[in-house]
Amino acid sequence: MENEKNVNVYESVAIATEKLSEQGAKDLFAKYENYFNKYMELTKSNFIGLKELAYEVRKNKSGYFFDYYFKAKKDDIPKLERLYRQDDNVIKFIVIKTEF
Question: Would residue 2 count as lying in a domain?
């Protein structure tokens, strides 16, 4: 990435609806992997799979968990969060600045 001073390391965990098939969840995971590779610098990703939630989220008792580590500029994060919010298959997400 250009100008390493403006780049931070982040982790993002997203949870997809249980209504997806496993293949549908893997396709969604790949969609976000491609997004990270295109607009940021993906360093690690993990498809965790279907897990039970601690509490119900949007009428889902479980969800497919995705975990991404990436390098990005601070300005890229609101765009990513907007993408998650607009995706009906994503029921919960978090993006945190980290040291990887």
Answer: no
